[in-house]
Amino acid sequence: MGMYAPGYYLDLKTLAEVRGIPFEKFRSGLGQQEMAVTPPDEDAVTMGAAAALEALEGIPPASIDTIMFATESGIDQSKAAALYLHRLIGLSPTCKAFELKQACCSSTMALLMATSLVKDSPDRRVLVVASDVARYDTASPGEPTQGAGAIAFLVSADPRLLVLDTAVGSHTEDVMDFWRPNYRETACVDGKYSIRVYLHTLGKSWKRYEKAGGYPFEDINYFCYHLPFTNMGSKAHASLAKIAGHDHLAPRALRRAVLPGLIYNRRIGNTYTASLYLSLLSLLDHAPPGLAGGRVALFSYGSGSMGAFFSGRVMPSYRRQLDPRRHKRILSRRIQLTIEAYHDMRDYALPCDGSTIKTPRCTTGPFRLAGIAEHKRIYESTATANVTPDVLRHGLSGRVCAV
Ligand code: HMG
Predict the structure, then answer these.
(1) Is 67 helix (H, G, I), strand (E, B) or coil?
(2) Quick one: which of 84, 88, 133, 354 is 20 to 30 A from 150 by CA?
(3) Residue among 34, 42, 54, 72 flagged as catalytic
(4) Architecture of domain 2-158+324-394
(5) Residue 298 has what DSSP assignment?
């Protein structure tokens, strides 16, 4: 598994001050502290490629049979984002590459599809990449629930982190709780309704997971949820405990089962398709000793809407496969933005008329969107270009960028 978060963030204290909202609403009401902000030379492709690089460490790229790219921040109506990664991370011409969409849930559909491919041919290795930029209108209730980031993971017959159980419970319904028409940069959302649909979908999916032979609530050690904001996970867990007949559990016991899975998401924000798997990584990096051999349940929710509840057993040697210090470094080395720089980064627009533009060098990651020419996006590796990001020298509009 690999993760990536942009090198820039906005402290929600800054946002609260500017919007005239008590910070406590964001901190304890939503459970969010900071949100990642993408600079002009990053998008779902560059973030996904960076996460894939970590997931493939020590694994020959030529051994990957299929790459599936799950996103709702697609950059092209026709060409799959997976094809850009195919070149950037050096996959083989025999590796199949495509993109999936169903809001935040498509990464889970990719995982389930990947397990079928692997069951069919156990020597296959499938790379799943989930990468997104969550964006709502400025000063809207959704604004503090933005974020950006990517997770990539490898699915194989020889898992090193988690062995998936066979039971899956899912629920699908055509509703309008959250959507983004092709002509909009920001999502449309009926916020309170979306929370109700999320919880309804969770209940239905759990019942079907139980019916399919899933593990009882009390046999599951930790729960990871799709986290548009981390309090959604706490709300979901309290609701599930009630449905599963465990409403007698003390709030402390409920919190213990979700808390380690909230740590990265509190500081990165919503990452749509990557959110659930960022929570899983947060759990694997932060759970107290004893997680090995334990059971983890996962609930994936994608607006529109579809949900899936499933579970897995953590491999005894899972710790050897992860590098929590690297993940903490990704967060600790980020640059805190001023509110002006946050707006400049949000408002930066690529040309839509075929003209040529070079993007300012901002990213601190391994890949960047160098520019656009004749409607073609140009990606490059930053490995050899160790220069100070333009944005730190000049800001985006000549204004001070970092706090
Ligand atoms: P809102 O109207 O700003 O907030 O919208 P609120 O008034 O409901 O307050 C939020 C919480 O803060 C409440 O807690 C308040 O009590 C509390 P709750 O009652 O829910 O436990 N609060 C305070 N706490 C401490 N001190 C204070 C204070 N004031 C209030 N002073 C909403 C919140 C989440 C609706 C909004 O941010 C939004 O629309 N977000 C985007 C949509 C979203 O995240 N929906 C979640 C489910 S849908 C989903 O997960 C799918 C998604 O990821 C997309 C996809 O699938 O692709 C979004």
Answers:
(1) strand
(2) 354
(3) 72
(4) 3-Layer(aba) Sandwich (3.40)
(5) E
